[in-house]
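Section 3.1: Structural characterization of target chains.
Under the original work plan, the team committed to producing a structural model for every single-chain target entering the pipeline before any wet-lab resources were allocated. The record below documents one such target. The sequence was received from the expression subgroup and is listed exactly as submitted; it comprises 243 residues.
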Amino acid sequence: AVVSTQSTGKIGSCISRTFLSAEMSQPEPIVIDPSADHKGTLIFLHGLGDTGHGWSDAMYGELSIDTYKYILPTAPAIPVTLNMGMKMPAWYDIFTLSEFDREDGPGIKKSVSYIHQLIDTEISNGTPSENIFVGGFSQGGAIALYAGLTCQKKLGGIIAMSCYLPLRNDFPASCTTNKDTPILMCHGSSDPVVQFRFGQMSSILINGFNPTIKFKTYPGLAHGACAEEFRDIKQFLTQNTPK
């Protein structure tokens, strides 16, 4: 069976802009501009096999904040070992879902570098780094966690949905600037794709060097998102956006 972690729901209309990218093959992100004075930016990464379009409805709907700009990048299509080498949008290669002792280090670092570049571009456009948040779902959440923790700019916060911390042996040494940056990890207790225990173990590890982390459990939730989770994320953004 092919594993995919696409979001559900129809694709909303979006505004697309050109960004400098780490590779020419990198698709352009979707950008949703704020409808009021710009106070914060959320860079949000999709899961395996999905695209930035797949999360646009949530940004227009459940996670909509009129003072927020949303940047939704799409991963390049690469062969995924877990899915018999099939090409699909992926932030890095995945070998197994049972344990994460074998990881695509170069692929992870390449995607993290791209997210850092998006952050730098947003800063150069006039947004203070403390007003920038990174987040993601599943594989995208894993990259958001690593990118946020290793970013050399002080961020507003990190949101990690249904995921784990990749390359865990790089920490705490690789986290220098964002040791007290607010982090929200969200995980369904019945997740059959990224097991709940992986998210929980990652939160315990991160808590050892960033005690601001909050780990929220959603009983019965599988590998997806729910209304309560969206409310928690929206509250996290509004509470941690500099006034």
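The beta strands are 15-16, 30-32, 40-45, 68-72, 77-80, 86-89, 132-137, 157-161, 183-188, 214-218.
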